[in-house]
Design goal:
- By secondary structure, the protein is an alpha+beta fold.
- The protein has 2 domains: 351 residues, no CATH class; 117 residues, Immunoglobulin-like.
- It has 15 helices and 16 strands.
- The strands form 5 sheets. Strands 8, 9, 10, 12 and 14 form a 5-stranded antiparallel β-sheet that branches. A 4-stranded antiparallel β-sheet has the order 13-11-15-16, with no helix packed on it.
- β9 and β10 form a beta hairpin.
- α6 crosses α7.
- It binds iron/sulfur cluster (2 copies).
């Protein structure tokens, strides 16, 4: 914050000046229990982000969103493009979890787990501090005219930002291309993988722009979740709130024990990464990062007042009304979430891993042919469409359920056993060759067993399908 806006104006955004120009926020450092908790969580999340795409399970990356090959792996389970209806459930679960968390604990995601907050706080701002100094020095550097020293500081900062952004972009792409794959791709010249190279550069550019420069403006003007949070919350949702009853009227001297506690030191404003004054009430810009809580607690400690003038509490509690944790809004989210999770589990469980469809050939319904020995035989030609979305390769055999002697009914195909591969569709031609008396009144419903194995003798039963055979009446 610049000096002018430690007094935040009501009529404009805290991060814009009187002419509408952006005020670049340089929040001051803060110490305290909330800061320590956040730092611990941030490092944990960063560790997960960087290690997750390198973990493999069952020969596959533990999370892989291979859009090019339309194959998606989640913790050992593989999904293919035709599983896209399941994505609807996942999206709904994701939205409902956010709804429930927001209704109960406010905008905790933004301040504690959002990748933008985590990386800006843990990496980008630390680089900035390392090169340009603390927040006071950074603010004054921004105001200085360009000089050789300022130029080199800015170049050094943006060079490091770019290197970090490149690393983040490669890790991000690792979730889509596969980290091992990406490693070998990156050893080749970019011209051999031009599309991927452009995607990588674009991702790096977006990260650099957002984490390096745009920062809190994204939360304020672009984040859809930030826009919607107010409809998900009520007065019993937890927020970072200023206790007006305890703090007002403010005074700029150390208050006596019977006086209100806020000494108007503006420390809570100076540490805020979105540049707001929480004493003006809950605001759209507040990302619940709790920096102002630690800042104010530090001041309260110094002036001998109890901590918690700014605290993480519901607005109802701030007003002295007990907080209701069980109430309609979160319960609606929780119920809808439970139903969706159950429906998703059911859809996942009943997902047909092998789809086999017998489609009669578009040529004539049957052929009546003469065999070399002079006997006659009816032939029905089917196309069998096979789709398999399991995990391993299979060989399929097709045999009639009822035992027929070889010369009375045969299933003939050059493609049996049919090798099938996960996520691949295959169509094979199958011919049912049989004696006319197999039919009854020119028809017969034949039950076909589908088996899998290396050879017919040891093959295991998978399922039964029905095929309509026809011939002369
Ligand atoms: S840090 Fe606390 S005492 Fe200082 S201005 Fe903010 S609320 Fe008032
Ligand atoms: S008001 Fe407090 S909790 Fe909200 S963004 Fe600013 S510092 Fe973080």
């Amino acid at each position: 914050m610049n000096d002018e806006n430690t007094t935040v104006h009501a009529e404009r955004l805290a991060t814009t000046d009187v002419d509408g120009n952006r005020i670049y926020v340089h929040p001051e450092d803060v110490r305290g229990k909330w800061r320590d908790r956040r730092t611990l969580l941030y490092w944990t999340l960063v560790l997960i982000y960087f290690t997750l795409p390198w973990i493999h399970y069952g020969g596959k990356q533990i999370i892989l969103l291979d859009i090019f090959n339309r194959e998606f792996v989640f913790f050992g389970r593989t999904f293919f493009s035709h599983d896209s209806p399941l994505v609807f459930f996942l999206f709904l679960i994701f939205v409902l979890i956010f709804g429930f968390i927001t209704a109960q604990w406010g905008r905790i995601w933004c301040g504690w787990a959002c990748p933008q907050t985590v990386f800006i706080d843990l990496v980008y701002r630390r680089i900035e501090k390392f090169i340009e100094g603390n927040s006071r020095k950074r603010r004054s550097l921004d105001k200085e005219p360009m000089s050789v020293s300022k130029f080199f500081k800015k170049v050094a900062k943006w060079t490091l930002f770019t290197l970090v952004s490149l690393h983040l972009a490669h890790t991000f792409l690792g979730f889509f291309v596969g980290t091992r794959n990406l490693f070998f791709i990156s050893l080749n010249p970019p011209t051999e993988h031009m599309t991927l190279f452009i995607i990588m550069l674009t991702t790096t550019g977006i990260i650099l722009f957002d984490f390096g420069w745009f920062r809190e403006q994204f939360c304020i003007v672009a984040c859809p979740y930030g826009r919607m949070q107010s409809v998900m919350m009520d007065e019993h949702s937890l927020v970072v709130a200023y206790d007006v009853k305890r703090g007002e009227p403010r005074r700029n001297t150390v208050p006596r024990s019977d006086e209100a506690d806020c000494i108007d030191c503006n420390h809570c404003v100076k540490v805020c990464p979105t540049g707001i004054d929480i004493r003006k009430g809950t605001q759209l810009e507040c990302i619940s990062c709790t920096q102002c809580i630690d800042a104010c607690d530090e001041i309260m400690g110094k002036i001998g007042k109890p901590e918690g003038l700014i605290r993480y509490e519901s607005l109802a509690e701030i007003e002295g009304i007990p907080r209701k944790t069980v109430r309609p809004r979160p319960m609606i989210y929780a119920t809808a979430l439970l139903i969706t999770v159950l429906a998703f589990g059911h859809a996942l469980h009943s997902r047909n891993s092998l789809k086999v469809q017998f489609i009669r050939s578009s040529q004539s319904a049957f052929q009546d042919i003469k065999r070399p020995d002079g006997s006659r035989e009816i032939v029905n030609h089917y196309k069998v469409s096979i789709y398999y979305n399991g995990e391993q390769n299979y060989k399929l055999f097709f045999v009639p359920k009822d035992k027929y002697r070889e010369e009375r009914l045969r299933i003939v195909s050059r493609r049996i056993p049919a090798p099938i591969h996960p996520g691949k569709r295959k169509t094979i031609d199958i011919f049912f060759r049989f004696k006319k008396d197999v039919l009854e009144m020119g028809r017969k419903t034949l039950k076909v067993h589908i088996l899998t194995g290396d050879n017919l003798e040891s093959a295991k039963f998978l399922r039964e399908e029905e095929v309509k055979l026809v011939g002369p009446f």
